[in-house]
Amino acid sequence: MMGNPSGLHIDSHLGTAEAALSSGGCFCDFCMRAFREHLSAKTRPELLAAAGIASPDAFDFRKYVKNLNIPRDAVNNGLSGQPLYQEFMDFQLVRAADNVASLGRIAQEIADRPVTLSINACLPHLEHIVAAPQCTYLLGEVEHGAAAGNKNLHVPVKAYLMAEAIGRPLAATASMADWAFVKDNNADRLVCLWIALAYACGQRFMVPNRVRCFSKETGPAWYCGPSSTFTPLYAFIKKHASLLNDFFPVGPLSVPECLPSSFETHEKRQRFAHALEKGNPSPIQAGDGAWVFPRCRKDGLNVAHVVNIAYEAQTGKIQPQTGLTITLPESLYKRNFDTATVYAYGCEPVKVPVTNIEGTMSITLQELRLWSIIAFEYWQ
Ligand SMILES: [Zn+2]
């Protein structure tokens, strides 16, 4: 902070909560004392009774777990059914979030001005959202299932919807295994699809100029994305920032109402997850291999991103689609339109007519390569 940075970023922000999630717990003296305080301050008496604890004052979670006689390599599974397990996880996650907030305060004190605060949050993992409300923005590895081509892209879509619902921008990258696959298979076009998908969902994708890879077969490595592939794509994003910034999603992937605004308990996190999963929302489909993401800006600008997900793993290419008609209900934007301008990556913008029939509006894209942004217009 004394070097005058504009923000503080905290990697592995979960600290011992990460160990608790993967291996059952941190059982150090500090955690045991703090958990005792947590139980005294917060826990419902019925929970203590279920765990057979008369008073939390002398309670030792380390002894409690030892007495359960769970095999060392199965601590997490063995613990997960126990009455205090979720309470211990909540405690670890809340303390991690408190730590993030306190580091943020220290950073501002030293810098003597507001600084951004960010964490590595690997969405859509629910445990990673506890500290999110304290942060200016999030960044992290989102699993894209590279080896499965376009089959697992609902995972990043879910991560982006979570970020939208939390109200914190997400700068995503893929997992180290994804990058290992991309490097080993020269799957640059697949990365282009990931980038388009992130921005179509209102989020960001970190420039893959030098990214860490890891696979069991080839070990650690670096993927250095070719600038000839990625520079024009990021130039398109920068040029059309006004079609990307400050929009919110409408349609099936809109943010549900009445979401919890903090996530310190398992119950709140589950409520958040269930609200987002209700009705199993997925992108609007167009043709055989396009996803449509309608978004609105408060001042009335309405757009629809069309992303070509027809990625062929065999050839590593995205097949252009021609004469693709996109039909949306008029209720989506609560009005109809006469024309639209299509801003497509790799093409000049073109004006196209909008056809309104029986409560639907349709436009036909002559060609969809990777990604087109349709901006609807009120008058010609
Ligand atoms: Zn500890």
The average pLDDT value, as a whole number, equals 94
Spatial shape: elongated
Strand tally is 19
Q: How does the helix and strand content classify structurally? A: alpha+beta
Give an account of the 3D structure.
The protein is α+β, with helices and mostly antiparallel strands. The protein has 2 domains: 7-249, no CATH class; 289-377, Immunoglobulin-like, CATH 2.60.40.1180. Helix content is 34%, strand content 25%. It is built from 11 helices and 19 strands. The chain has helices spanning 16-23, 29-42, 45-50, 61-67, 75-80, 85-111, 154-166, 176-185, 188-200, 227-239, 266-277, and strands spanning 7-10, 116-120, 137-142, 170-174, 204-205, 211-215, 219-223, 247-249, 284-286, 290-297, 302-308, 311-312, 317-318, 321-329, 339-344, 350-353, 355-357, 360-368, 371-377. Strands 8, 9, 10, 11, 15, 16 and 19 form a 7-stranded antiparallel beta sheet that branches. The chain has a 5-stranded parallel beta sheet with strand order 1-2-3-4-5. A hairpin with a 3-residue loop joins strand 6 (211-215) and strand 7. Helix 9 packs parallel to helix 10. 35% of the residues are buried. The mean pLDDT is 94. Bound molecules: zinc ion.
Notable characteristics:
single chain; 380 residues; alpha+beta; Immunoglobulin-like; 2 domains; seven-stranded antiparallel sheet; 19 strands; binds zinc ion
